[in-house]
Amino acid sequence: MSNEIRHYPADVIEKQTAAFLSSFGMPDDYVKTTAMIMTDSDKRGIDTHGIACIPNYRTRAKNNWITLDGEITTVRNNPLTALLDAGGGLGYPVAHKAMSIAIEKAQKMGLASVAVRNSAHFGATGYYTRMAAAEGLVGFAFTSTSAPRVVPALAAEGRLGTNPIAFTAPTKRNKPFNLDMATSTVASGKIRNKAVEGQPLPEGWAVDENGQPMTDAAEYFNGANMTSLGGTRELGSHKGYGLGSMVEILGACLTGSSLVMSPNHGKRTPGSMEIGHFFIAIDPTFFRDKGAFEETTDQLIDDLRATQRIDADQPVMVAGEPEDMIEEERAKTGIPIPPGLREKLKTLAAETGAEFYLD
Amino acid sequence: MAELGGEGEVKYFSEETLREQISVLMRAWGMPEDYIATTAKAMADADACGIDTHGISMLPPYFKRQRGKLITIDGPVTIVNETPVSALIDGGGGLGYVPGVTATKLAIKKAKEIGMASTVVRNSAHFGATGYYTRMMADEGLVGIATTSAALRKVAPTFGKDPKFSTNPIAFAAPTKRNKTFSLDMATTTVAGGKVRNKYNENLPLPLGWANDADGNPTTDATVVIEEQGGTQTPLGGTRELGSHKGYGLAAMVEILSCAFSGAKIMTSDSDAQATPGSMDIGHFFLAIDPKIFNPDIPFEESVDQMIDDLRASTPVDPSQPVMVAGEPEDIMRDERKETGIPIPSGLRGAIEDVCRESNTEFLFV
Fold first, then answer.
1. In sequence order, what are the residues at sequence separation of 6 or more whose Cβ sits closer than 8 angstroms to the Cβ of residue B200?
2. Is the ipTM, as predicted for this complex, more than 0.85?
3. What is the pTM of this model?
4. What pairing do the DSSP bridges indicate for beta strands A206-207 and A138-143?
5. Which stretch of DSSP H or E encloses residue B16?
6. A256 touches chain B (CB under 8 A)
7. Residue B201 pLDDT > 50, yes or no?
8. Are A103 and A137 in contact (CB under 8 A)?
């Protein structure tokens, strides 16, 4: 096996992802949706949420933390809202269905929201809000998570997850404005990267088990935690903490899911990680003439991109733009798979009997 | 507004007296009688819970704005269009309190009827503390979200030099049973402008990450911001390495919510094409959701209470500084000020006295 990064067309990655999911026992219709959404992350450079998740999903399925063939049921249904139960399955099919329902209801009624309970990891939060924008709607998405690794401001212990927020607004001449952000200072993948490269962590990313700032990346995985966005109280970590709590309220409390800081989180229901999601869709034409919302948002994007640069080589971008650029690039180059991941996937394929397409 | 404190004496007044002082001034400026009580209540509430930057300290700037015809103090608040789930309100160029409260009440009424609702406001001005409106929703058992645009550009995007946004706040509140309401109300900047001003007044260096100089480099010198030497405040996160692109993204989201739904002026634009005489054309956004519509197995308020209890029980870094939840510092301050009254420093009293004299009306903080 060579040590080089190899590139594959997106359809090969999607086929490989689907082959794994099928080999784990996921039903075909769920496989199709899940592989499509996971591969979209790989296409857009969100490498932490694509095929790299496959080994984790295998572990979770094998340990019966998730139920890959869990039945999606509609618990409540109202003109503007619905509550879905994911049956303990991975979150992709149920989240896709939930946002589709929200879109359909919002197109009819003006706005809608759909809550999901009894779910698991659903990939990149921003995928679902882009679904809304593709239909001319404004989309919000929130999700609870599995592990309390983020400390509240002034706290020494992890109490919240990375609790992401996504928001997408439709546009006409620009790509949609697409914000998708963890409410922690950085994603844990970035800390892992520093550890792998033997580099110190910037101060403000992580705190040790006493809540003290720490910069030794290798030590992070011995009981350290991430900070809330802001990093330190002086730089506003109480705001990131507040946003993280807001996401917990919307993702867990509103959906009837368990709180991530609860000692029983993920243990109440066998075969379920008990994660909750929340989706909102709003039709701007209920407020203004068709196209007016998009015109304003396009103007905003143009204005922001025209900001004077600090560094002539570093353009001022808007949310979603880095991913749009990578998507364009990878459409030409293919999706890069590093040797470590490829090796891992190859071993896993041999184990589960999935066809291996990445040789 | 601590800079108005000066050397003089701090005096304490009841919330009721603050409302009266606000009311007599609004009346003197020509605000319609039925708008006055709403405005005075919302403004004094900010002082009552310690948000001193958004209460009576705004009277001198409001005085200037109405005299300079930047706002139309008697502008009529009208409903432009309305559906069972939405409404667009025109603030008539007036102060934002009546449009804000009108929009919030409409969102509450509709959400109670049908499960959720969103109302937006255009052609408005400053509406005080954003969290006031979301707490109104939570008081009615609803989850509330509110945002507003704002006039003064002082925040540069990540990687950018010149300011494009104001502090673009977002508020969120959730109802509870045994705890006080969860109430998040935050500027999407690293710190409020008042905190930079305080450091400037005391000749203290800014913590690195609060502000950038005119070239976009991090600075500890407050003068570049306060003395308008091209300095900017940073979006939440402070530096790119610590996630300022997230604060910047939230600020842009707030601008979109507040202006793109309502048609209010976006503050990033240099163009005067949208300028409306007698109006700052600020936009607000409100969303109310009735948690009962989802009827989760664990009652919503119980789950929020549990979360608050769990968060407050977090082991603190410093035992003398307990872990709090959003809204708690203001709740503590409200209780305290109920006992002590609301402190008004002599500098602010002097400024309001001047405004009262120029407005030919009674000064009550004596």
1. B222, B223, B225, B226
2. yes
3. 0.97
4. unpaired
5. helix B15-29
6. yes
7. yes
8. yes
